[in-house]
Amino acid sequence: MLQQTQVKTVIPYWNRWMRQLPTAASLAKADGERVLKLWEGLGYYTRARNLQKAAQIIQGQCRGKFPERFEDVLALPGIGRYTAGAICSIAFNQPTPILDGNVIRVLTRLFGIAGNPREKSTNARLWALAGDLVSCAAKTGVCGDWNCSHLNQAMMELGALLCSPSQPKCELCPIAAQCVARRTGRVEAIPHLNRPVRATARRFAAFIAENRGCFLVRQRPAGVVNAHLWEFPNAELTANSLPLNQVAELVLQATPADLQPLCVIRHTITRYRITLEAYRTTINRRLPNVGRGRWLAWEELEVLPFTSANRKLLGFCHPRPKDARRRDK
Known about the structure:
Layout: H1 7-20, H2 24-28, H3 32-39, H4 46-61, H5 70-74, H6 81-92, H7 101-111, H8 120-140, H9 147-161, H10 180-183, E1 200-211, E2 214-219, E3 230-231, E4 234-237, H11 244-252, E5 260-269, E6 272-282, E7 293-297, H12 298-302, H13 308-314, H14 322-328
Parallel strand pairs: 1-6
Antiparallel strand pairs: 1-2, 1-4, 2-3, 2-7, 5-6
């Protein structure tokens, strides 16, 4: 959960998850949609699917015991070099290096490394430095009985609390005297990162179609962003798109009675800045369920895992009067 997500965001998800799926065994046998529902809103849903795959491997191949060898941890789905190193050093006190954004900032400033940390040669150098430090800690025992665990956690905390990207608190840093970047006046210039890729604007129209108290939703296919999550039928709008009513007819595979503007939701997925325009409509003749599309009542929609933007739209499907919804807010 902490991969690319802040602790303050993760905590309520973690607490809810541990109440419902407290063990690898319970996660391994859980329904896939239940897993996605518990993850709903955290984004990067591949993490949830990989987490369940890892639990199934642990139950099936490791006899229910989490592996302790670095190579075995690294082999689990969704666990890369950094995560495997963090687990083995923090949980098992092994001399395995870690290299996240905070540690990169500490090491590049401490050793005055001006190269781009994402470039292969610079990145390899940083991994080597992180490995040397944790190996040295393992041999000297400078951090106590759990020296490897303490060292790696200390570097992460140092980067998070003092050696921040801007306005670092150098006067409080315990290794300021050894910091090359501070000594040479380059703290603000290191690490040297490429400018972020400019965000691309995209525009979509979503159609909340109702027929006799049921709403049309569809499940996203495998292999795409937010795979297997549910959403209202939608289409991307471009300069060459058909008129909106024709787009709705194609997407819904039926002629909508009308299109009433409902709301506009703006959100971000990776490098895309998305504007989602929602329209409510009615369908006089309900087509049978076809493919990934389903006509479902509000109570049935509530238990499904939706994408974040579509979860917001779902609130407009609630059968209570609009005034009641307004009072709740």
